[in-house]
Amino acid sequence: MDISLILQMVLVAGIASVLYTLIGVAPGTDETAVLAPVTLVLVLAGFEPVIILTFFMAAIVAKKLTDSIPVAVAGIPGGVMSAPMVEHALVLKKHGLADTSIRKMASGSVIGTIVSIPISFALANVLSEFSEVIKEYTDPIFFFGAIFLALMTKNKWLALVSILPLALLIQGLRHLYWGVGIVPEDTTVFISFFLGITIGPVILTLFELLNGDLRSKLTRHDTKKISFKISKKIKGFPNPFRILTKNETVSSFFSSILGVGTFFLSPVGMTIMIGEVVASKIKDPVKKAARAISSMDALTNAAYISGTLIPLIALGIPLSPTAIGPGHALFNAPPVFTQDHNLHHILSMSEFFWATIIGAGIAILITYFVTVKYAVQICRFVFKRIPHEAMLGLFFGLVLLLAYMDAGWLNVAGVLLIGLVAGVLNRLGVNYGVQFMTLYAAPFIVNTLF
Amino acid sequence: MTKGNKKHNHEPQNIEVWEDLVHIKDLGLALLICGAGALGGYFLAPNNASEPLFYGLAGAVLGFIISSFIIKPKRTFEEIREEDQ
């Protein structure tokens, strides 16, 4: 690796950090929606593979660091991954501790990043020995993952029962598209269905708004009051180990290890689980919430990094929700990357290592510093200037665009249908984790089980 | 219904969608602008490789910026300064 390449890596890591620091703050930005299209553009534009990986690593670290801000300040998930943290963040917000909440979450993120990188490399090395065997069982792994996550939820039976109909809907649409001929038989519509599930709750609400009776029954509010306590400024460069208490550091550390170990499972599902496990024994509501959010953020970061790195390094197939969602373009972006010619085949171990270190390192340096120091300023800007309508509009526009790109106008209706079903399931209590896993397992469920 | 974006101070008119408040008409407007931006960018782009995707993204972001300027957030932001430790 020569100096100019390293300089380029540092430069793209910086650009990604700044860009995703801003994107991360915006409430409701879905990880896949904001990461996958941009990565895809870079791949198709012909950037060096090692540059693309550096960009992606910096982007996920920055995005995960800042998406805690809207959660802490307004209880709005900054992304799907931070949705499970809302409950705990609201406790801290109620006590006027929104800024503490941001610092705890950001520090958890940093621990998750630092812990997960070496373990991911180690685990990837071990797994590459078994890569042939694992590749054979990819589909059943996703299927059992869906069942496992369903069993982890509060409404076990509901979640279990909903797996099959959802899988049928997904495969049904795919076969319809193949049958009508709008999608070639060797192409599986994925990203737009994924986004359809993500935006499901919004789609359901939009449909309800079209019904006059339901619309008039909705509770009307004045403006949303957000009060924000500003505590003392942190001097110098913030240190995550001083922001977190000893107990929080320890549980963040173990949550990170768990996040790496379960890289193939839905990070959202695991985040919900770790939140419940960590918080269950603590009585004091503030301590409980602080411990939960720092550990949950550590886990999501670890799960994202390992979910990207392990399948890339060890297997070359997107065998994790992160790889198949936000990181999809690193594995499959024809004609540049294909199943037999992607980052796994192109990059050497040392290139993987340096791309990760430079990407994650620069993102932490820039974004952690900015998040912890300027959380109040960032919040003030976002909450006074960015209307929620525009956020929903942007997300809706992206979904529309990717739905059309995947399979034309018919798929716009298809994504609405998936969103509607996913929205109803969501409201009934089937979480995203189960739904995403079902999306991945759908071909296996329909083609192999029946 | 009163006209378009008249001030809605007297009666609360905002509803909650995805954890934050929106005004129904403003939401419709934002969906329209961003949707049109995304697809408009896509169809106007020169038809080669990644450009339609890129233009589509740019169109969506442009729609987002326009919406941010013409729609007012339904939040009031209150800061409490805390002097004691």
UniProtKB/TrEMBL annotation, chain A:
Asked whether the keyword Transmembrane helix is assigned, the reply is yes
Q: Which UniProt keywords apply?
A: Membrane, Transmembrane, Transmembrane helix
| TM spans (from-to) | 6-26, 38-62, 68-86, 106-127, 133-151, 158-177, 189-210, 252-274, 352-376, 388-405, 411-430
Q: DUF112 domain location, by residue?
A: 11-431
Q: Does this UniProt record's set of keywords contain Transcription?
A: no
Name this polypeptide is given: DUF112 domain-containing protein
UniProtKB/TrEMBL annotation, chain B:
| Annotated protein name in UniProt | Uncharacterized protein
Transmembrane stretches in the record are 27-46, 52-71
UniProt keyword terms in alphabetical order? Membrane, Transmembrane, Transmembrane helix
